[in-house]
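Ticket opened by: R.M.
Priority: normal
Category: complex prediction / small molecule

The reporter submitted a protein together with arginine and asked that the result be attached to this ticket for the collaborator who will pick it up next week. Submitted input follows.
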Amino acid sequence: MQLWKGRFQKELSKTTNDFNSSISFDSRMYKEDIEGSIAHATMLGKCGIIKEDDAQEIVSGLKQILNDIDSGVLQIDMEAEDIHTFIEGELTKRLGDNGKRLHTSRSRNDQVALDIKLYLKKEVKNIKKMLEELVYVLCVKAEKYSDAVMPGYTHLQRAQPITFGHHILAYAEMFLRDISRLDDCYKRMDEMPLGSCALAGTTYPIDRSITASLLGFERITNNSLDGVSDRDYCIEFASVLSIIMVHLSRFSEEIIMWCSWEFKFVELDDAFSTGSSIMPQKKNPDIAELVRGKSGRVFGDTMTLLTVMKGIALAYNKDMQEDKEAIFDAVDTVKMCLTAFTPMIDTMKVLTQNMRKAAAGGFINATDCADYLTKKGVPFRDAYKATGELVAVCIEKGTTLEELPLEEYKKICDVFDEGLYAEISLEKCANERKVLGGPNSDNVKAQAQRVKNILEKK
Ligand code: ARG
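Result attached by the on-call engineer:
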């Protein structure tokens, strides 16, 4: 049944009805739709626009519908045009004329904007909580491996010694920024659009502050055209979700590499790995690969939202119905990824011996060798050149800087002495980087504690 029937003589064809309908994806907002209607009816009663008794009857009718949907007594009719139509139709079926009074001074245009905001506000909080859990897990891992030496990379070439704790905390920083982006996004989303009506507001003496406070909104939208046609909050949320997926995807890529025999820095728990149907030896990091792959969906959802919105004149246009599948998919995908990702990280085994072995190859202490000379007064450029020559000697002899005899060092620069070997030990190289933000073990522990303190204040 369409709400707008009066003007029309013919029924909508089945195909048009299906094409036009959004109930298959907006039915998930039934709670928010009812919550919004309860607040609206209460306000109408308080302002004397409908009788208090009628308002009360509407409110209890809506509560009953909510109970019935929750308990499965009432099935949502998938032939309805959308969730708003369904709930109002059901209320009218139950209450008669009082059901028909609910939509006084309201349009589906402000109603749908309200429902999405109510729904997304909850999801911003849910995802924030999930990220906080992940960050906490990262802190615990970082503390445990604060002094586990591993090679740090640039260009995927071994570069300088760092600690595993240091590497892991880089991701904690990224996710902390994501959390603060979610906070910002929430603040801007927290504006109540009801009362914008179709586009031009209303002549009824409504009090928008009543609905806003009943629904827990911080502010009220200030322009009725903007109130119904704004979807910035969907775009912004999807953008934040996209950045989260960038971080999860980069992390996944590292996990995938670290699981390979070429690295073998970590081993995933059996519960988060899969085998091959043909190769009995295989243990595959499918979960991480899926997370990496799913990032594309969320970027696509963001692009969908931008494209839907970019060319439509004010105010509401039906194009905007396309917002929901995109933002819901982005939300669902990020939640699914986090549900799998956090325990995968929590349970993975860190193979510190292999990291240490990898750190021993690749001359990652070459900078420290040059710094050693510099600290003894050799200009850095000369020290750099001498060390480069030493690396070439090591490559030729198949050895490392740690094992190269002192006389070979002296052949290239006579400033070298026995003290060199202590200076280029990998543990020392990693640990001497005590600069704020560096891989030094105490630093890592302090940073992990700092991040945990931030989480505690949240
Ligand atoms: N199902 C619609 C949507 O999701 C609700 C708003 C309909 N408003 C309208 N004027 N047709 O956008």
